[in-house]
Write a structure and sequence with these properties.
Length: 199
Amino acid sequence: MEISEKLDVFFSEEHIFNSAVLRLRSLILESGLEETYKWSFPTYTLDNKNVVAIGKFKNHFAIWFFNGGLLKDPYNLLENVQEGKTKAMRHWKFNGEDEIDAEKIKEYIDAAIANQKKGIEITPIKKKQTAELILPELLQKALNNNPEAKKAFDSLSQTKQRDYALYINEAKMEKTKISRLAKILPMISVGKGLNDQYR
């Protein structure tokens, strides 16, 4: 499916926040950003660099700012997408169309564009890696029992392998570890990294 078709589907499919996300789209397009489609969401770029995106969910819709951590946020509207994990990404959540404040939205988008034009962005900090990667027993067993997933896992970068190992290890309860494993095995099998959507 072409990008234009994916965008058409996103903005035309029946959804409680349809008219609201169309308003956000209109405001973003007025800024001159280029519209594309990434990670199942309309994404807006400047010189091929991600600036903002639109998301719609069951109970809210949102604008994501890829380098929102650098925005001043005078109205205290931005939230960290994954507290403790994401350094740069911030989102502005809305629970209804009546919460859309066009002037404030334009103000934040303009600030994000200005930062991008200056090349101001948050660079991920490389964590020091130990020489040996030790996989959680649960993940190791699952990979041993699934040759296709093991082959795909082995071809991932060490950083992506560590992300998966950490994701399982961080879960405190066994049932959480098992549910996380069920979630990541299909991603591993197709060669995806756990955090690819944020990179």
